[in-house]
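TL;DR need structure tokens for one chain.
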Amino acid sequence: MNFKPMVINLIYIALLLFVSCSSPQVQITESNAEITSAKNNSENNFTAKVIRIIDGDTIEVLYHELPVTIRLEHIDCPEKKQPFGTKAKQTLSELCFGQNIEIEFNGDKDRNGRYICVLYNEDGTNINKKMISLGMAWHFKKYSKDNSYAELENEARKNKVGLWQESNPIPPWDWRK
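>> reply
TL;DR here they are.
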């Protein structure tokens, strides 16, 4: 007899009971412990501990004892094998690894199922914007219309900060092709 489906269902029921008792605005659903708030978007903030840095624009947090993968909104960092890819990952780690961070969740997920969010570290720094201003990321204009990120990118380019030290840096969306 296969007990795996029964165990999964029991864990799912236990999580539903736990969450419904401890946090009425958060709903855990069967598919990847989705984070959805019953409040409006301006109140979709939550706090979680950063437990892993996947790359320069992707982290994993522990939320209600469940790992949740988050993609930083508005930015795109160099890929691992690209120049500054490792440096972007290290920079993100320095900004937030091990911290309880504030997460602004807009309700969207990317095609890989990652939650798209803006992050604030324990100092209150907007991590997404900091990655741009340190020259560790491009403004991801295809998915972001927030001009403040474009302005930060232009300033980093002008000052030849981070990846802008390269004579002709290749955007990650071109590198991935």
